[in-house]
Amino acid sequence: MADVLDLAILGLLHESPMHGYELRKQLSTKLGAIRAAISYGSLYPTLRRLQTAGWITEAGETPADDADVPPLTSRRGRVVYKITAEGKERFQDLLAQVGPEAYEDAAFGVHFAFFSRTEVDIRLRILEGRRRKVEERREGFREVLQRAAERLDAYTLELQRHGLDAADREVRWLEELIANERSGRTPPPRGSEGELRPPTPRSTDSAPPLTARPGPDDSAE
């Protein structure tokens, strides 16, 4: 997760200098895939580590706006961070990493957010690796539904179907992106912010309430 957070922070600072609180907001809104991993407890030690490595530096302070400062936070001026030349090189190195960790939910979401700065061959390798990852996940859902459906209660069974549906949608989405990359087409913007985003990874903690589907005995009544 450290490299994922480094990539996210360096990528945002590559766009513009920011203070820590603004960075955290941007990480949460633009890079929702790692939202759960971001906290003041992890962000500021990471900023200090990046600063020690010479990848970011302080660019001064901004006056604190009381309306924009969270509760229990100091009202003194906030340190603004900016990326260094060495940090830009590190950012490019992280973008080019295409090992299995780049296909996981959080890492893939961060890599995808910076695809406009990523070489075509790297984008393709990440997309193809992610597709393999999701196809494996999809097969896992299918196996459960085929082999253990009779041992699952109605809601657990419905959750497995929900996961299978989500995996199917993501595979189709990835195949579309891969086809676009191979043909040289740019994906059309989507979403309320005009931004093409990966599907939200399935989570059993955040799945919507599900209604059990009636079985054969129920429908016969």
Automatic annotation (TrEMBL):
Domain of life: Bacteria
Chain residue ranges for the region called Disordered: 178-221
Residue ranges of every copy of the Transcription regulator PadR N-terminal domain listed in the record: 9-92
Pfam family, one: PadR
Name of this chain's protein: PadR family transcriptional regulator
